[in-house]
Structures
1.
Amino acid sequence: MTKAFSKDSTTSEVLEGIDLAGKTMLVTGANSGLGMETARALGAAGAKVVITTRDAAKSAEALAALQEAVPGAEFEAVEMDLGRLSSVRAAADTVLKRYPKLDAVIGNAGVMNTPFGRTEDGFETQFGVDHLGHFVFYNRIAPSLLAAAPARIVMLSSGAHFTSDILWDDINWEHTEYDKFTAYGQAKTANMLCAVAMNARLADRGVRAFSVHPGVILTNLGRYMSEADRAEMIGRMIKRMGGDPEAAKDVGFDKLPMFIKSVEQGAATSCWAATAASLDEHGGRYLADCQVAPVVDTYRPDGCMAYGLDPAAAERLWGVSEEMVGESFQP
Ligand SMILES: NC(=O)c1ccc[n+]([C@@H]2O[C@H](COP(=O)([O-])OP(=O)(O)OC[C@H]3O[C@@H](n4cnc5c(N)ncnc54)[C@H](OP(=O)(O)O)[C@@H]3O)[C@@H](O)[C@H]2O)c1
């Protein structure tokens, strides 16, 4: 019988009884927060885990922490800066060479609500790092996933996708006044659509893709936000839940325990997405609280918007993304 999990489930609970010995799984952005916990938990379940970090010093520090947390488990690292396509392409070459078979990739790295900026290749930072960098990476390492099929691609999205559909007229913020919350929402909707398009291309060959909302977890993700930004974000969240945004005044995330998950709970949906056999028939879907999220039309923490699952929009974004990165893919 399939086990039922919930928003309170932890990484250990969703991986209990699952033996990942002989599997190789890669987690991007694993030197911190949810990525590190995902790597730890997959390693504890027996997988060889490849982490990516932005530089060698971060890799060394993260590997030491992971090895201390799970003595005897195999952890290795590859450096990749998702804000530079040259770095993404080099990392993908290394991965293809070192890991000809990859049973799962968890595209976890991301930035949130950054001040306006552009990546080295000229993309708005959040769209560039959270979506386009991963888009190139998944496509280039697809041969390793196909060689290991059945395999999984897990893309970290967010409930923030409720904030914005893709800004089709100005995806790259060339002439629209920048709003960091909307830009994050767009990037996280792009993660959902990327999972839909990738799944459409690979599922019949045994590679299924999912997007995931981990919940709200206190990590380094909030590093670009001021106190005023936090109040604004909480206000928008309360408003989306039908409440009075004024109630957000002087409230910090830590005062909102109903929203907050532990890191072990936050990383559980990623681990579930990477391993649960019961998900085979749900490729392309958005998962939250270790469940396939229902499509809703007003905000619900465990629901999702139809625009993030629309196959036509997914194909449109695929084409636009190829154009932006200057590369065509047939994974
Ligand atoms: N925490 C939440 O409440 C929450 C909610 C919804 C969705 N999510 C999603 O969950 C994922 C993990 O977030 P987290 O909460 O664990 O945050 P976190 O602790 O800040 O971890 C983010 C990771 O991404 C890496 N990263 C950032 N920019 C990068 C770049 N240019 N190239 C390569 N790696 C980069 C970071 O590396 P550095 O340490 O070098 O910066 C770090 O390893 C994100 O995709 C986020 O959008 C989180």
2.
Amino acid sequence: MDTPEVGAPTNISPDAEVVIAIKGLCKSFGEKKVLQGFDLTVRRGESVMVLGKSGSGKSVLIKCIVGLLTPEAGSISVLGEDMLALDHDALDRIRVKIGFLFQSSALYDSMTVRENLEFPLRRHWIAQDGNDSEALVREALENVGLENTIDMYPSELSGGMRRRIGLARTLILKPEIVLYDEPTTGLDPITGKEIVELILRLQKKYGTSSVIISHDLNVAKLAANRIAVLIDGRNHAEGSYDELYAMDDPQVKPFFIFM
Ligand SMILES: Nc1ncnc2c1ncn2[C@@H]1O[C@H](COP(=O)(O)OP(=O)(O)O)[C@@H](O)[C@H]1O
Ligand SMILES: [Mg+2]
């Protein structure tokens, strides 16, 4: 679609570099069509949210973006690279620039917080590259206000603290783009709000662009420059929170009714 973007955020120039361009993405599992021609553009510094019901294909979308799932049709360009054409090594190199916060924090229970945070550094050989990994770990923990947990195990932390450690681990590689899958799910509303505020603060500090996948309207209101509504496998409607709220679309309306 070449129609102009609806409700592009006021603080992001429409000429800003496109960091993610998704066009006509299709992904099925057997007979089940999940994505059916999904389009999305994300510009540098933007925070775009994909809002969709449970089971609508939000996690599938994120997994396609990072190359964990292969779509049948469509294109995905990330930082100018054609993600569907990259070989294993090239994919690995670009993945350093794309942070991914899973739905669950996915920390390793048998490792301390320090070891959990060192893991991506080792995985991408950053620990060996003359970098001071201890300093990187401490900076990452300081960012989320949890310096004192460095020698603790995940089981000793609350759900909110684990989520913050997960965030610290995602950001330790200083990715240019971060994909958040349901960052507040399973947390109480106050802790969820704290996580969103933390995400925004760190996004500003490091100038990252982000895609936030969620069904949480509070997240939409707080965190998104722009919201895309995923319905029937497509980007059904796009705009700011206020624009979507005011939209007279029977499929969009239900998202904006608070229970
Ligand atoms: N690996 C898979 N194999 C088969 N079906 C899958 C797989 N991953 C997801 N699905 C199906 O795709 C649909 C969308 O899933 P998902 O993206 O996880 O939804 P959500 O929007 O809640 O994140 C669901 O019906 C799910 O059962
Ligand atoms: Mg999901």
